[in-house]
Amino acid sequence: MARKQPKNQLLLDYSVRGNRIVLHLGQVESRRAADHLFEGLVNGDWMIEPAGEVADISYAQDIVHQIGHKLPYPEGIKIAQLHNVDPHFKGFSAIYHQKGWVFVNAASDINERNYHIHLLTVSLGLHTIYASATSLAARSEQLIFEALLPFEEVESFFRNDISKIPDFLASDIANFFKVPFPMVLKRALALKIINDEQYRSFMTVNPSTAAKPRELFFSKDGSIDDLEAQLFSGE
């Protein structure tokens, strides 16, 4: 029985197009590692399936639904979290055997990995529309920001008179959105929730859970200012 086409996917024939990388992540070292990995995969030097020591493999369908746009995704996008790869390797998306694939470093930070998986998945739905890698990356990021970092939720963590953010709070914010803290700041700046000065200041924060604040206690008549005084006191 034929599979039902997901409602947010458009039919697209990849049968006449070869194996190729769609979008690289990271700098030169990461891209070089990606090219080496993909060349080895295509040449049969290593196998991505079945899943096991080489990679953990899952489907990206939940991510496709979460993003919510009707894009020309290849059918059955798979995510491969690769083990024992070059530490400089970030990730890439690719068409392999006429299927969409997302490859990321399993050893990377969990929030960074989540962000990269979402970004690369979207790139597979946009790459036939954007010929330039720069434009593809920018548009993919825009859709991810809209899906993962909605205005109301980002705004709830910032205020225009806040000049510093404790490390533990930056970590909590990153974990709430499941993306790296700098990505939250980039989104907040783009939405004009924070200004340039705040952005530069907050970018120096090193998200950490090592030093949690003392427990917070509230009286019935306690105000939000009491909480902020404790959180942003710098103690």
Describe the structure in your own words:
The protein has 235 residues and is of the alpha+beta class. 41% of the residues lie in helices and 12% in strands. The protein is built from 9 helices and 5 strands, in the order βαβαβββααααααα. Helix 3 (110-126) crosses helix 4. 31% of the residues are buried. The model is unreliable at 1-16 and 214-235 (pLDDT under 50).
Query: Uncertain segments of ≥5 residues (pLDDT<50)?
Result: 1-16, 214-235
- The main sheet orders its strands as 1-4-5-3-2
Shape descriptor reads globular
Mean pLDDT: 85
The biggest sheet amounts to: 5 strands, mixed
Number of alpha- plus pi-helical segments: 9
Structural class: alpha+beta
β-sheet strand percentage: 5-15%
* Oligomer status: single chain
